[in-house]
Write a structure and sequence with these properties.
mainly alpha; three-stranded antiparallel beta sheet; 496 residues; 3 strands
């Protein structure tokens, strides 16, 4: 069909022009493709039009609303139930951490028959990210390293009758949260570039290395300072949790129900390092979607032709370069947008604008996470049922579920495509709404708030087009010969 060729061309040109970065053919748990009922260009145009129109709606509706964005919501007291659940979750989390290490070191090397890859990459990363973003941040409760540190710290404090195990060193304020930014990029590299990320023994070593690093950090500067600045998982899930409709109560025995996204605009500007962290949340997910497809193949072929000495068979050099370039490109695009905003409002610096609006980009990261990973979670997550009965792949059947086989037919490419496009559009609409609410709060006058919101709205419209073009390639049926996927031909950095 001619429209298939045009759609393919549009998808490739949009992604190449704005990023020239890679595409993966593996973001979904099946190889089936969906033949769109209309050209992809129509979907992209419609989605961007909806996102642009949502800005007009936000201006009209938010104009009569309060400028403040209070964090308050409906407080639900749970009494002693919440502390009891917290204790159970902490015990279970430590058990699972130990199980991952044991399974990785002593279990089978087959990723599909070993608990470690599924529990870490599918359940612990993809699944937990979606739970935290769509329900509430449960990470502080299930963080096994926090539990281990606080337990040992409390025991030492009880024995010594003085301080715990923390040395009380001062965390260098100049570093801020930049260590967490670097660690997030490193974690993304392990997930999508490192070819042995699914090898159980490698996962066990990574867990041990992170355990040593984070426990040492907590001992040196204290748990709160470490998790506020350098603990990539604590910061990542805390940021996603601000988007969620359930927040923590002030007394530890209650929860707060609030509109989605309110936690993102409840406070003022974040640090410059947190701007980099939020941009990393966006760019790493999109890079995962780009890796291994047509644009990636074309870019890698050109890279090989121009700089053959820098090419390695594993694709590590090019993959690492692409990951860093994606982050820098998104960072530059966001700062350029903030520069335009600063010129328009005149009384704010570029840095202050960037820090002010950074968290309003989080719904886009959530949306692309859903679009890119939901099908993978629904299909591959089913492996947990059988793996709990045989975590080491030794032929056990502890709970009678070892013979369970995942039903890969519960979703198809059509379902995934429409979930993806709905999530992407919704996420951008929410971001535009939140950004305009922040602009109203900070700039007061409606006209000035609209002016301040326009550049960021334009960026979100462009990102909508990029996101749909990227997510379409592994899902949509194009009448075009498939190109080799280079890195993924050698083995996926994903569990399977």
């Amino acid at each position: 069909m001619n429209h298939g060729r045009r759609a393919y061309g549009i998808a490739r040109l949009v992604a190449a022009a704005l990023s020239s970065l890679p595409v993966t053919a593996w973001p979904h748990a099946f190889g089936e493709r969906y033949d769109l009922p209309a050209p992809l260009a129509y979907f992209v145009a419609s989605a961007t039009a909806v996102v642009a129109l949502s800005f007009v709606v936000a201006v009209l509706i938010a104009r009569g609303m309060s400028r403040a964005s209070p964090a308050e919501g409906l407080v639900v007291a749970l009494g002693p139930l919440l502390p009891a659940l917290r204790l159970v979750c902490r015990i279970v989390s430590v058990i699972f951490l130990a199980l991952v290490v044991v399974a990785g070191l002593l279990g089978t090397r087959n990723p599909e028959m070993n608990l470690a890859p599924t529990l870490v990459w599918i359940i612990g990363w993809v699944g937990l990210s979606l739970v935290v973003a769509c329900i509430g941040n449960i990470w502080p409760v299930i963080d096994p390293w926090r539990t281990l540190f606080e337990t040992v710290d409390a025991l030492v404090h009880r024995v010594r009758k003085t301080g715990g195990i923390a040395l009380g060193w001062t965390y260098p304020q100049a570093l801020g949260a930049w260590p967490a930014v670097i660690l997030l990029l490193m974690f993304a590299w392990l997930e999508v570039v490192y070819l042995q990320a699914s090898v159980p023994s490698r996962i066990a070593y990574m867990m041990l290395a992170w355990s040593a690093l984070t426990l040492l950090g907590m001992v040196c500067v204290g748990r709160e300072a470490w998790q506020r600045n350098a603990d990539v998982f604590a910061i990542y899930f805390a940021t996603l949790g601000r988007f969620a409709p359930v927040g923590p109560g002030s007394d530890g025995r209650s929860i707060v129900l609030r509109p989605m996204g309110r936690g993102l605009i409840a406070s003022g500007a974040v640090s410059t390092a947190m701007v980099g962290f939020v941009i990393a949340m966006l760019s790493t997910v999109l890079f995962d979607g780009l890796l291994g497809g047509q644009v990636w193949w074309l870019a890698q072929r050109a890279f090989t032709r121009w700089m053959p000495r820098l090419v390695d068979d594993s694709g590590y050099w090019f993959g690492t370069t692409g990951l860093i370039a994606a982050w820098l490109l998104f960072f530059a695009a966001y700062l350029a947008t903030c520069l335009v905003t600063a010129r328009l409002v005149r009384d704010r610096t570029v840095n202050s604008i960037a820090r002010l609006f950074a968290l309003t980009l989080v719904p886009i990261a959530v949306a692309y996470n859903i679009a890119h990973n939901l099908s993978n979670l629904l299909v591959q997550g089913q492996l947990l049922v059988s793996l709990l009965s045989d975590p080491l792949g030794r032929g056990w059947n502890l709970f009678g579920t070892a013979a369970f086989y995942p039903n890969i037919g519960i979703i198809d490419a059509r379902f995934t495509w429409y979930v993806a496009i709905s999530a992407i559009v919704t996420g951008h609409v929410i971001s535009i709404w939140l950004a305009h609410r922040v602009a109203l709060r900070e700039f007061g006058a409606s006209r000035k708030a609209v002016t301040a919101s326009l550049p960021l709205t334009a960026l979100m419209v462009a990102y909508t087009a990029i996101s749909l073009s990227v997510i379409a390639e592994p899902l949509v049926q194009f009448r075009n010969p498939a190109a080799p996927s280079s890195l993924n031909d050698k083995g996926s950095a994903r569990p399977y």
